Amino acid sequence: MRGCDVEPLGAMRYRCVASPQFRARWFVKGMTRAVVRQAPAVVFARKDRLQSDFLLKHFGVPEDGFPRHYVPASDPYMQAIVLGLGWGMLPELQMRDMRERGMVVDLAPTRPVDVALYWHAWKVQSPRMERLSRTLVTQARQLLKGGRA
Questions:
Q1: Which pTM value belongs to this model?
Q2: pLDDT of residue 46 exceeding 70
């Protein structure tokens, strides 16, 4: 955008996860093209392409080739996956503790999805907003994969 600076922050790593019960029901033999066309996914919103892109890349399944539930709120989305409504993509940072406690399992451990994140800010900012931007960029780069320190 004109008048804005864009700072790359790094990448947020997402994992394809489900509850252990969901995996036992749908993916007992792993993720296959036939099964992912039938197993329901949990998708954040209609513009969310993480699951669609993942299925197209790894299984050749098109956008309209799998069932899904839309849950457009972060915590309810995560809970829908934990409760077994479907499989979905969760940020590694958000779901790490749940995976360690056995609440979710990684369905595709060798197939993470990295999403590049950027900070957009006005070129001319108040000193307070400039400090906020600088702090946010520094902290995000330390936390995210591939961030520049």
A1: 0.84
A2: yes
